[in-house]
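Input/output pair, single chain:
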Amino acid sequence: MRKFVLSSLCMLAFSFAGMAQTLEKMQWFNEPEEWEINSGRLSMSVTPQSDYWRISHYGFTVDDAPFYYATYGGEFEVKVKVSGDYKERFDQAGLMLRIDHENYIKTGIEFVDGKYNLSTVVTHHTSDWSVITLDEAVPFVWIKAVRRLDAVEIFYSFDDKNYVMMRNAWLQDNTPVQVGLMAACPDGKGFTATFEHFKVKHLPDQRRMEWLKKNQAE
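Output:
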């Protein structure tokens, strides 16, 4: 009987461990009017005329687009499969890593002048913007970000196998970061963005691992 109980408890613990990282446990910043989680997939009706941007080039600051996130400390890898029915200029969807309203990175697909672009905005008080224009429309894209020390490496893929780096950006280390799913619709009346297979993988702290190598117990 005791073996059965222990076995059941172990199975239950394993089951909860497998379910621990779920979309349902995350939280909203600027919750949209309509959204749904179904079978590990988040779909949202992106709020019209919403965005994230600070000051540079345009002269305005906005911080009002939907962002669904959890908070992580330390180093990690995060990735997600993103799709959307992009319609208007600057419709966008992807990942965001955010310390606060003056320090964040958003990256994913952005629809500009009829073309799909792999887009990254890095903000430290003021925003910058880098794009890679795609030759044709794509039904989805995988976006991955790897936070190591004081940098975030950003990659894209069309098959979740072959990843290509699109940006390396500074982000303050040893600081908790809000990590999650962002979409914005600066010019339009809204669109539907969908996020699948969202996963955050913990990475052992690089400085600590180097310290352990130098101070191994004999």
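The chain has one domain: 24-201. The two ends are 42 Å apart (CA to CA).
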